[in-house]
Amino acid sequence: MARAIRAHNMAERLSIMDISSEARGVLRTLDVADDITDEYKDIITTADLVVLATPPGIMKQIGSDVVSHMKSGATLTDVASIKLDIAKHFTAFMRDDIALIPGHPIAGTENSGPAAGFAELFQDRWCILTPDDHVNSQALEKLQSLWEGIGSQVAIMDAARHDVVLATTSHVPHLIAYTLVGTAMDMETVTRNDVVKYSAGGFRDFTRIAASDPQMWRDVFLQNKDGVLEVVDRFIEDLSALKRAIRWDDGDTLMEHFSKTRDIRRHIVDAGQDTDKPDFGRES
Amino acid sequence: MARAIRAHNMAERLSIMDISSEARGVLRTLDVADDITDEYKDIITTADLVVLATPPGIMKQIGSDVVSHMKSGATLTDVASIKLDIAKHFTAFMRDDIALIPGHPIAGTENSGPAAGFAELFQDRWCILTPDDHVNSQALEKLQSLWEGIGSQVAIMDAARHDVVLATTSHVPHLIAYTLVGTAMDMETVTRNDVVKYSAGGFRDFTRIAASDPQMWRDVFLQNKDGVLEVVDRFIEDLSALKRAIRWDDGDTLMEHFSKTRDIRRHIVDAGQDTDKPDFGRES
């Protein structure tokens, strides 16, 4: 996000706090911010916009302290993959003179850390904002302009709806990918070497997703528990039905199911959501 | 395969039979073969090598007739994703003067038809051959040279082992992707439009896999039933364990599981199996 803001010249002053000295070293090499510090109090007292970009669990731990140090009239947002649980948590200590506008850019790769970023990450991707009904409309417009300024399209929806949509399009796909890669690694009859050599048959796409940050995803699953469990249960029901069709040689049921899923791919390609572009900055 | 053979000049004469007049039209435009016909008897009677590239179900229907028309001393191979069931089927009518060497290149995209091919598809990918113990060693060497000549690495293993390895690295990943895309399409609370817009969160990788040819995959699941059902059952067990960890807020179990799957990705990237290259010829 810092790279994108720099590239599009969207901030007068950009300051980053990171607890990792390694990450701060990389950030200094990249020259993507005016200030790089290990103490958020150094930077949030004067900031017009504070962006929390930690795992969701940490966000809840530091939220109250962050809010207490922000200046009057400022806006607080975040980029977490879950929204309802965090919004509920922040309600307890939010100040009337600060605009809370939770956010979630639907963009990213399996790589984490400052070196893995690239300024074009948000280009043509959607960013979801989930403000409550009483949000300061000027603050909302300003944050929306920032996301649009770095290439995103912005959608506004309520936090509960965000969580069920993302459970379907992101959280459960990640849980399934983590599971399948683990299942493959535990097969006695298939070696690690087999899995690597023959991964081009479909498996490698799952390993890409299952290489995402473990701590972040642990927090996502625990904090969107209801949404994730509902979609997982439906998925297991549907998988069991296809399993039954295979066991009983019911080719018609399989054919019908496989034919209907092909269409949605075309819509995703048409909507330009099929790949992260450009390719540089990603693993080579 | 025809494009690759042409590009590497690996055949004196290359003839293609396709029942689809549309496919034959595309093949003529592409100019990838010396002969293009709708009748396999026209070409297999003089061929040194016959490559069957139909869905597995069709392969079993035409196998006996194909074998009866081949010339003495020729080799018969295929490119199907399952091996044991087909090998068993062919045993009944194989001739001693023909070398049967089943094959499976672990390469491909979600797109099908002659227009979706590209000569570099097999570059640095593995091709598995599953001959039986009595195979003519000269014929095997010749077929191996062909695959190596178009860029592949060749692995030789028995058909049963192929089927359980591929159930893990290809068949079950496809079944899971088809299932999840279907589950998402059936959610009452998530619209088709939501799924398309927010697919960059992980879902789009599943739609890519679930856009593969339905008829081919129906045949694969029915003909590798034992391998597929075993891996699916283990997968459901593992998913249920993670589901339970989420329900009971057991973050340690999730963290442990998610951390161990990250490593395999690095091995796949190191082995050059992480992506199909080059990008041209694929959907844009």
Low-confidence stretches of chain A: 277-284
Number of extended strands of chain A: 8
Report the order of strands and helices of chain A. Answer: HEHEHEHEHEEEHEHHHHHHH
Strand content of chain A: 5-15%
Largest interface: pair, residues per side: A-B, 99 and 99 residues
What is the CATH domain class of the largest domain in chain A? Answer: Alpha Beta
Largest sheet of chain A: 3 strands, parallel
Structural class of chain A: mainly alpha
Give the strand line-up of the largest sheet of chain A.
3-4-5
Note the overall shape of chain A.
globular
Quaternary state of the chains? homodimer
Helix proportion range of chain A: 40-55%
Describe this structure in words.
Two copies of one chain form a homodimer. Chain A is mostly helical. The first copy, chain A, has two domains: 2-157, 3-Layer(aba) Sandwich (Rossmann fold); 162-270, Orthogonal Bundle (6-phosphogluconate dehydrogenase C-terminal fold). Helix content of chain A is 52%, strand content 10%. Chain A contains 13 helices and eight strands. Chain A has helices at residues 2-7, 21-30, 41-44, 56-69, 84-91, 137-149, 159-186, 192-197, 203-209, 214-223, 225-247, 251-260, 262-270; strands spanning 15-17, 35-37, 49-52, 75-78, 99-100, 103-105, 126-129, 153-156. In chain A, the strands form three sheets. In chain A, strands 3-4-5 form a three-stranded parallel sheet, covered by helices on one side. In chain A, α5 (84-91) links the parallel β4 and β5 (99-100). The longest helix of chain A is centred in the middle third of the chain and has 28 residues, at 159-186. Residues 277-284 of chain A have low confidence and may be disordered. At the A-B interface, α7, α8, α9, α10 and α11 of A face α7, α8, α9, α10 and α11 of B.
